[in-house]
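Hi F.,

I've been meaning to write this up properly since the lab meeting, where we talked about keeping a consistent format for the predictions we share between groups. The idea is simple: the sequence comes first, exactly as it goes in, then the structure tokens exactly as they come out, then a line or two of notes. No screenshots and no reformatting. I'm using this chain as the first example so we have something concrete to point to.
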Amino acid sequence: MEIREASLKESLELSRFKRDIWLETYENIYSYDKLYRYNIDENEKKFEDIILDENQNIYVFYHGEVVGYLIFGPGKYEDYKDFKLCINALYIKKTYQGKGLGRKSFNLVKNYCEANKISKFYNCCNYYNKNAKAFYSKMGGRIARTVVDVSREKSQYYFEYYL
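Output, unedited:
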């Protein structure tokens, strides 16, 4: 298993992986349109932009193919403007979950925080993604905010971590 920074040439593979992981994870949560009208080309461009953004960190988990990825950097939520770091995405293929990749991801984030004198960070996960909720709690996250929206897609837990 290789964990390394993503490269531009992997943008298309990451876009396809994201589509597949969304189908695997969010089938009864996200709308049909969001899942089945996912635009690979549009998301490839988004991954290129993230990879080129010096404020974002993107790591790929590779085992003959992409089996996961992690994105962290500045957050975008107004309520968390005093937090300098957010885990913006952490996706691991189901067959690779429970093998330590999530914990290794958190170690990457914590090491980054320590090196950059960041004492806290946060992330969100979908309210209906019970596996993610359990994982983030296990990693030491404290649920600081819960938003339950009419749209299942917008319902979120906000986790905070203090180092």
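Notes:
The longest helix spans residues 11-25.
The first strand starts at residue 2 and ends at 5.

If this format works for you, I'll send the rest the same way.

G.
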